Amino acid sequence: MESIKQLMNWYASNCDDDWEHTYSIKIQTIDNPGWSFKADIVDTEVEGKITFEESIDDDDDWYSIKSDGKTFKGYGDPKKLGFLLDKFAEFIKS
User: Fold this and answer.
1) Pairwise CA distance, residues 21 & 57, whole Å
2) Which domain of life is it from (predicted)?
3) Scanning 29, 38, 72, 89, which has the fewest C-beta atoms within 10 Å of its C-beta?
4) pTM here?
5) Residue 8 CB neighbour total at 10 angstroms
6) Inter-helix orientation angle 2-14/81-93, to 10°
7) How many domains does the chain contain in total?
8) Full residue range of the structural domain in which residue 52 is found
9) Cβ neighbours, 10 Å, residue 27
10) Residue closest to 5 by CA, chosen among 85, 87, 91, 67
11) Residue 52: predicted pLDDT
12) Pairing relationship of beta strands 50-58 and 34-40 according to DSSP bridges
């Protein structure tokens, strides 16, 4: 639950009557099955922060996370939504 609060606070801190009209955060289901999490980080304090892909791929236990400096993207199996949000919370903290 803490990572959801951090996500909401991060989003609110970037809403300036401009950013939220151009950029977004998306949480969706995917047909693997699993989750997709995408957060635009342009014009935020973490813009430009790049991470190498972190992933595991083991049948029903998989995820992939990466940031290219403009977007943070995470994908994971049906049980990984909380994990993806935790990883984003770590990303915006450091």
Assistant:
1) 35
2) Bacteria
3) 29
4) 0.94
5) 11
6) 50
7) 1
8) 2-93
9) 14
10) 85
11) 93
12) unpaired
